[in-house]
Amino acid sequence: MRTTGDDNVEFELSGDRAAILETADRFARKELAPLFSRMDAEEWWPEDVMRKIGAAGLIGVAVENSLGGAGLDFFCQGLVIQAIARHNSSVGLSYATHENLFVNNLYRNGTPAQQEKYLPHCIRGEMIGALGMTEPGAGSDAIGSMATVARREGDHYILDGRKLFITNGPIADVMIIYAKTAKELGAKGVSAFLVEKGFPGFSVAQTLSKMGNRGSPTGELVFERCRVPVENLLGQENKGIAIMMSGLDLERAIVGAHTLGIAERALELAVEYAKSRVQFGKPIASFQMVQGMLADMYVAVESMRRMVYYTLARCNGMREGEGGRGEIHKLTAATVLLCGRSLMEVCDNALQIHGGMGYMWEMEVNRLYRAAKIFEIGAGTNEIRRLIIAGELLS
Ligand SMILES: Cc1cc2nc3c(=O)[nH]c(=O)nc-3n(C[C@H](O)[C@H](O)[C@H](O)COP(=O)(O)OP(=O)(O)OC[C@H]3O[C@@H](n4cnc5c(N)ncnc54)[C@H](O)[C@@H]3O)c2cc1C
C-alpha cells in the first residue's frame, strides 16, 4: 500500500535528474575532492566551502525559486548528496545536515517570515544550519529522555539544557533545537525553535574528535537561560514531534543517498587498485577471490541504488503530517538499515583488496572505511531501525 510519493521512480536516471547528478558530481570532483585528505588529517573545516556550494546552486535544491532555491524536488536533493559524498564524505555530512536537516525542515515547517529571514542566506551558504535533538542522556530515547526545556517568559522562550553530537554545532549560525515546553505531556509536549548562535545564553561546550568524517565539525551545545524570541518557535507550541518524526524519515532517505555515494567511490577505488597491484606476477584482479569481493561490492552498490532511488521517489512531495508512521516510516527505516549495513560490507571489501596499504590512515579507502560506521548509528541506530520496521509490520 502506498501513502505518498510520485510515480517517477527512475532506476536509470534521465532528464533533469541525470543532469543534476552530473552537475553536482563535476563540482564535487573539482572543488571538494582535493580538500578531503586535509580535512580528515587536521579535522579542518574550510570556511568558504558552504558558500562555494551555494554559489554552484546546490543548496536549497527543493526550495522554490522565490526564496533563492533551485525549485527542484526531494529526489534531486538526494542526488546532490550522493554526488558530494562520492568525493568528500566530510563535506557531505555537513552539507546534508545543512541542506536537509535545516534548510529543508525550515522550508517545510517555517512561517513565511522565518523562511524569508533565514533561507536566502542559508541557500547562498552565508549561514550554516544544524539540528539539535540528541542530548547526553537522550540518544535512542530522544523524546522520552529529553531534558532540555523551554519556558515562555513574555515575548521570549527561555531554553535550558544541552545537546550532544550535533553536526555543524561548532560552526552553525542558526539551529533547529528541540525542547520540552510541557514535560507532563511527554511526546506531545515537545516544541522546535530556531536558535541563532548570537542569542544570549547559547554556547558551544566542545568540538568532538571523531574516527571518521573528521572534517565535519561535531559539537556539544549548551543553553543556559538562552533567550529565544517567540517568533522563532518553529511550527506550533507542543507540536514539535510531527516536525521531528517526518524530518527523521526524510533524513533516513538522505542518509541512504550519502551511503550510496561513498559505496560507489569505494568500489571505484577497489577496481582501480585490483587492476594495478601486481602479486605472483599478475594483477591481483586476476585472482578469483579478489573478483569475488568486487562482485559482492557491485551487488551491494546496485541494491543500495535501487532502494535509495525508490525511497527518494516515494518521499517526494511528502505532505504535512505524513511521516513518522506507516509505510513511509517503515520504508525509510528499511532503506537506511540496508544502506548502512551494505556500506560497511563494501568498505570492508574495498580495504581488504588494498591489503596493508588499505590499513594506512592517509589512504582514501581508509578514510571511507572510517567514515562508514556513523551510518549504522546516526538517524537512529540499526537496532532502532529494526524496531521501527517490526513495529510497523506488527501494527
Ligand atoms: C558523528 C555524529 C553526528 C551526529 N549528528 C547529530 C545531529 O546533527 N543532531 C542530533 O540531534 N544528533 C546527532 N547525532 C546523534 C545520533 O543520532 C545518536 O548518536 C544516535 O541516535 C544514538 O544515540 P546514542 O549515541 O545516545 O546511543 P544509545 O541510545 O545510548 O544507544 C547505545 C546502544 O544501545 C542500543 N539501544 C538503545 N535503545 C535500544 C532499544 N530500545 N532496543 C535495542 N537496542 C537499543 C543502540 O542501538 C546502541 O547500540 C550524531 C551522532 C554522531 C556520532
Protein architecture, described:
It is a single chain. This protein has 395 residues and is α+β, with helices and mostly antiparallel strands. It has three domains: 15-128, Butyryl-Coa Dehydrogenase, subunit A, domain 1; 131-234, Butyryl-CoA Dehydrogenase, subunit A, domain 2 (Beta Barrel), CATH 2.40.110; 240-394, Butyryl-CoA Dehydrogenase, subunit A, domain 3 (Up-down Bundle). Helix content is 50%, strand content 15%. The chain has helices at 15-32, 36-42, 49-55, 74-87, 89-109, 112-123, 240-276, 288-315, 326-353, 355-358, 364-372, 382-394; strands spanning 129-132, 149-153, 156-167, 174-180, 190-196, 202-207, 218-229, 233-234, 278-279, 282-283. A four-stranded mixed sheet has the order 1-4-5-8. α5 (89-109) runs antiparallel to α6. The two termini are 14 Å apart. The structure holds flavin-adenine dinucleotide. Residues 97, 131-134, 139-140, 165-167, 210, 218, 374, 377-378, 380-381, 383-384, 387 line the site of flavin-adenine dinucleotide (FAD).
Summarize the structure.
The chain has 395 residues and is α+β, with helices and mostly antiparallel strands. Helix content is 50%, strand content 15%. Helix 7 runs parallel beside helix 9, helix 7 (240-276) packs antiparallel against helix 11 (364-372) and helix 9 packs antiparallel against helix 11 (364-372).
